[in-house]
Design brief:
globular; mainly alpha; 434 Repressor (Amino-terminal Domain); about 110 residues
Length: about 110
């Protein structure tokens, strides 16, 4: 059973627990200089929690399926491409993990 940051099994994640782990463990919800790139595992977990296949995620975010695969690829692989802030934020909004009208606590207002 694979563990995420914070020691939770990936299978046991809920949207609430996942959101809390993102807020507590890093600045992946912040914009500007405070933004920390989510890991490929965090991207995969978000899509899984949202119930999206790679094809559905690609359609919702307006990218090609090959781009989704690159976001899921481990960082050490040459094919890996980090998910841009705008795509990450949109995925968080569309998944229902964050409210589009509200700035997350700790985020700066650049």
């Amino acid at each position: 059973m694979e563990n995420t940051k914070g020691g939770h099994s990936r299978e046991g994640l809920t949207k609430t627990r996942y959101r809390r782990s993102l807020l507590a463990s890093d600045a992946s919800l912040q914009k500007g200089d405070g933004f920390r790139q989510p890991t490929p595992e965090q991207v995969q977990d978000l899509f899984r929690l949202a119930g999206w296949t790679q094809t559905e995620a690609a359609q919702k975010l307006g990218v090609d399926v090959s781009t989704i695969r690159r976001w899921h690829t481990r960082k050490a692989a040459k094919e890996h491409v980090p998910i841009p802030y705008a795509a990450w934020r949109l995925a968080l909004i569309l998944s229902g993990l964050v409210d589009a009208r509200r700035q997350e606590s700790g985020a700066n207002d650049d």
